[in-house]
User: Fold this.
Amino acid sequence: MESEMLLDVRDVGRSFPRAGGSELLVLEDVNLTLHDCEIVGLLGRSGSGKSTLLRIISGLSPPSRGSVNYMGHAVDGPASGIAMVFQSFALFPWLTVLENVQLGLEALGLPPKEIRARALSAIDLIGLDGYESAYPRELSGGMRQRVGFARALVVHPNILLMDEPFSALDVLTAENLRTDFLDLWGEGRLPIKGVILVTHNIEEAVLMCDRVLLFSTNPGRVVTEIKIDLRRPRDRQDPAFISVVDRIYAEMTARRADRVAQRKERFPGSGIGTQLPRVSANLIAGLIEAVAASPYDGKADLPDLAADLQLEVDELFPVAETLQMLRLAELEGGDIKLTHMGKLFAEKDLNGRKEIFSRALVSYVALAAHIRRILDERRSHTAPKSRFLDELEDFMAAEAAEETLRAVISWGRFGELFAYDDETAMFSLDNPR
Amino acid sequence: MRFSALIPPVSIEARRFLPSRWDALAAILVLGFIVLFADASQILLEPLAKLTSTPISLSPSSLPEYALRTSLRMLIALAVSLTFTFTYATWAAKSPRAGSLLIPLLDILQSVPILGFISITVVFFMSLAPGRVFGAELAAVFAIFTSQAWNMAFSFYQSLRTVPSELTEAGKLFGLNGWARFWRIDAPFAMPSLIWNMMMSMSGGWFFVVASEAISVGHTTVTLPGIGSYIALAIAERNLSAIFWAIGAMLIVILIYDQLLFRPLVAWADRFRFDQEQGDGRPQSWALTMFRRSRLLAAATAPFSSFMSWTYRLAPPKPILTAGPGMAVSQRAADFVWYAILGAIGAVALWKIASFAGPISVADILRVLGLGLITMVRVLLLIALASVIWTPIGIYVGMRPSLARIIQPIAQFLAAFPANLLFPVAVSAIVTFQLNPDVWLSPLMVLGTQWYILFNVIAGASVLPHELRDASTNFQVRGWLWWRKVALPGVFPFYVTGAITASGGSWNAAIVAEVATWGTHTLRAHGLGAFIADATTAGNFHRIVLGIAAMSFLVTVINRLFWRPLYWYAERKFRLG
Assistant:
């Protein structure tokens, strides 16, 4: 049975110009199709370009390479028939609920009577009855996102794009809204044909989607496609559900491990240009303690750990990878396992931990070692931040360089490897160990 | 520059719009004070007539010295304004009893047209140092002070009222005395908005420093060496090239002030921002970085900071719990004394006003109010015109970050530039082409103030969230619908802030814009500004006071009935987040 193809994205790439003339590649060779009656999930970490892809599909920004085809027409600007639900709702604070919902219809130039009738029926469908004259600021987050849904549905789009629509909501509200949406979808009461959902929440993707595309980071690329054939409505406790979640976790960690290994070979000895995530020393210590403690005793399953610590993939992975980079833990097949040094770290007091951390920094974080060496060599034992920022910008975009330097400053401070004065923007060896 | 700090530099403090008893008392006190000045000046005017004025040279080579003197006056006035702010606003914030009068007083003072006021104070201050320049210098500094102090005090008062109570409590628990708490908690907390208001004050201040340097009251002419006097002489001699030299000098002075004083201050004050998230748009200043890295400066300021920490330890903090049974009674007695004193002062002021108002007839008052209405129509029309022109342009610029980065500093700079330096250029054109002064002098009133609208709108458009813009694109909201539902509402609160500032400035500018001279030609438009300017030239103090009172009245009424409700409406309905 061949269903109608709504959307065909071919070889799409997107790069942004960078200071210095080079280009920053955000998306590379993305292929994606959306068929009638299908929910496709784009799953990946922040920085994997999935939101950029959504903007390209909606016509908000053009691709650098490749093409987007919507029901037989090339997309080269905002297309009627593709509507978007935004992460932070994007409601106009000066318009009432009704006026917000009507806005898209007014833009279509429909007669006022029809505008009103359609808006009211969309408000009714999405469960906003009685709130028509309220202003967004009077509503809770969940109600606001319902307005976001009503506003998108009222124009009867063929494709609904959702950019992490539930991630700004608390857990209960998000679940409530997801269930309502899936019920309406299952009953065929939504005036839409297909949905593309961007998310970083693995369980959400498994709960809602028929297919999930996994994205890698830097640049964003589709690394694998997972079909989810589970019967709806889906149950999070169902062993089949859990096994799909576990499979995705394993898939995501494996990709990362591969890539880290690959990069090592590509730049032998030159690790200064490695982009570092901003992970606080508290989180690092906290994760080590959690893994070292029972019931894990040094080895934990990442999905279990995430559920236990109430962390999302986006928050857990950078910490886990930092541990791996510092050789305090190993990542393998969706598991995290503390190394000898990691276990030692868990046992020590604060000063002992600082010592282990500082040694790990010098040995495995090339940038930290580099900064320390420069400070040692200079007679004044000081160096301006701009010196290292310039060096980093040879390897990465300006914001990434700033982030990386911020990360290394925070780690350097914890390990007392060097000091940094934000007001003068100077590194120094004041009170180092 | 962080735009979230944008607040109008006039009182929008209270949400109430109707006058209270305190407002009435404040109005009487202010008017009484002005009358007192005017009365004294009237008597003192004659002996001063023989003051020798310093000869001014039109040679460009003397401009650096004049520029230096002008900016020194500015700096001294700023220091005085700061002292006033720290005392007056603190008193108003810490003592509810004093605050109930001091705040309405500030509100009335804000509406007093400074340029009309100068003529009165100049004579008074000169009598303090007869025959010497010192008195005139004092008067100039006082004029600049009155243009700067009120809104700084307001902002400081508002900050003091909103210091988070947990900070104050933490200070008390750590045993800081009141003096230490003021400098360690209150002042730092208030710093970002105080500095923003200082910048706005300076913007307005340049206008008044230039205007206050060359003043004629009756037969007395005062010329203080400075850019303002230079311009005045250039006008008398119809020397256009000298005027362009002066404009150039002023540009440089403002640029130096901006780079060496305000940019560093804004960047420095960023550390006092209470919300602790680190934004990416942190203000930068090369001068501040230089100061911070300078060992010399660190060594020079070290004794001062150790002196300050020594003063913190001088007085032991009061015990936290000090409620006693005798408190209520003494409180009531103190209240009684306070109200009695206020009542007495108010009565004296009223009597003073009544006896001063003797020669003023009802017809005079009606005529002045009629002239005031003409000026009001002028101000409102011009603000409307400037809004129609600059709002779309501001939105266009603000939506394009790369363009906004270039235009925004220019707009802020133009707002700071004293527009009265440009008047002669326009006036010479009006004389040459024999245009109608009632129409063509009017644009001068908004020449300097229209930029407040532009840069506020740019700020508003540039902080419009990306997702909102994406949403409107996604739903294909375009054309007039886009302006009506997205862009105009989005910048509305910012626009109101700009328009309030512009309107306040335009009233003041009316006094110098409605009467303009070019050599021997004098152009005169009908209006309250011209009335005050003429009364000043004639040395008629009754008319000056009448004009000032009428203008203050009109400005207060417009603020209360129009701008303040509009501001709160905008805040309530259109403010993002």
